[in-house]
Amino acid sequence: MSEKYMNIAYALRSLVVIASFVTLAGCDSKPMTIEEQFEGSYRVMFDDNFSELTTNDQAKMGISDDGTLEIEATDRDPMLVFPVLPIESGGKYVVKVEVWSEFDGMAQLFYSKDGGAEGARFSEAASIRKQIMKGDNTLYYLLDDNDLGKWIRFDPNNRPGRLVIQRFTVKRI
User: Mind listing the UniProt keywords for this protein, alphabetically (predicted)?
Assistant: First the structure.
């Protein structure tokens, strides 16, 4: 066998050994958490652009001097509707919300379906609920629906009272 072919054979064997090692090492690793996936992504779709939000008549909102969003929920269904986001159907996204609440309750994130009609943009079936506690909260929502649309709505709590959203970020993962 010529020296050229021996070098190629040696290189191929080395690659097989390296590939086997990488595969075995990967077997013991844990899947990344939603928090790790969020922190590892730099593909930001929305980041604290609170002036672009609209609300219903059950929430009064204002942006404070430090850039946080202050909300006074006047009834049980305050909602924040976001502008059209550059979300692609079939993509995976994580929403991270840092919020302070003066009471315990339930926060809910709604997402539109790609084929949804304008008037029927949000539904309970296309939503994710998270427990919110009195004080500081960090909530993560994974959006990985194959029919994901470009709209989201956040209902920060299901009770009247005061809330402050410090950060609201949507990233593609």
Answer: Signal
